Amino acid sequence: MAQMGFFIDVTKCIGCKTCVVSCKDKNDLEVGRNFRRVYSFESGSFPNPILRHLSISCNHCDHPTCVENCPTTAMYKRKEDGVVVVDHDKCVGCRYCEWNCPYGAPQYNEALGKMTKCDTCLDLREKGEEPACVASCPMRAIEFGPIDELRKKHGDNADIEGLPSSSITHPNIVIKK
Ligand code: SF4
Ligand code: SF4
């Protein structure tokens, strides 16, 4: 299995949220439901203030606490690429996965009464296209691919201030900061 993951370049991201908007558009997400989110961090002080932005969705973790705590096995990790998805035939909308994800990735669909989340744009990938966030980023700050290749290219850091420790769920992301 080639585990897939995201590379996020914080040094390139300008916080424009085009990735968030393109994801919302592609997945038809109403206000408040965001598969991808951008967090901004301030540090330093005058005359050298620093403002950085981190774009993040689901990290399709090696130890997915969302999967481990789903009482119906609706939340599962695909064998073929390690992408974590929800089976709506099994989901009862209890929201345990949401409470157990340290990244706030699962997003509850009130109208459906089911959990929803980033699936890495599986339908686009099947057509040979990139996930919407990757394709739309004007700064080319997001890459998607086999995590081993991304780590070879960019290193293996998955931690940044403001995020929970990567030791909890072993997320399949690489962050350049
Ligand atoms: S589209 Fe790119 S630059 Fe804009 S917020 Fe998302 S990751 Fe950052
Ligand atoms: S980021 Fe959250 S929802 Fe995604 S696999 Fe990890 S624990 Fe599950």
SSE diagram, text form:
Layout: E1 4-9, H1 18-27, E2 37-43, E3 50-56, H2 65-68, E4 75-77, E5 84-86, H3 96-100, E6 107-109, E7 114-116, H4 122-126, H5 132-136, E8 142-146, H6 147-154, E9 173-176
Parallel strand pairs: 1-9
Antiparallel strand pairs: 1-8, 2-3, 4-5, 6-7
This protein binds iron/sulfur cluster (2 copies).
Note down, in words, how this protein is organized.
This is Dimethylsulfoxide reductase subunit B. This protein is of the alpha+beta class and 177 residues long. The longest helix is centred in the N-terminal third of the chain and has 10 residues. The strands form four sheets. It has a three-stranded mixed sheet, with helices on one face. It has a two-stranded antiparallel ribbon with strand order 2-3. It has a two-stranded antiparallel ribbon with strand order 4-5. β6 and β7 form a beta hairpin. The model has no long low-confidence stretch (mean pLDDT 97). The protein contains six helices and nine strands; from the N terminus they run βαββαββαββααβαβ. It binds iron/sulfur cluster (2 copies). The site of one iron/sulfur cluster (SF4) has 15 residues, from α2.
Write a compact overview of the structure shown:
The protein has helices at 18-27, 65-68, 96-100, 122-126, 132-136, 147-154; strands at 4-9, 37-43, 50-56, 75-77, 84-86, 107-109, 114-116, 142-146, 173-176.
Q: How many structural domains can be distinguished in the coordinates? A: 1
Please state the second-level CATH architecture. Answer: 2-Layer Sandwich
Unreliable segments (pLDDT under 50, ≥5 consecutive)?
none
Percentage beta strand:
15-25%
Indicate the radius of gyration in whole angstroms. Answer: 16 Å
Overall, the morphology is: globular
Order of helices and strands: EHEEHEEHEEHHEHE
Q: How many strands, which pairing sense, and closed or not: the largest β-sheet?
A: 3 strands, mixed
> Ends: how far apart?
28 Å
Mean pLDDT, to the nearest integer, reads 97
The tally of helices reads 6
The number of strands is 9
Looking across the biggest beta sheet, what order are the strands in? Answer: 8-1-9
- Fraction of helical residues: 10-25%
CATH domain topology: Alpha-Beta Plaits
Overall SS class: alpha+beta
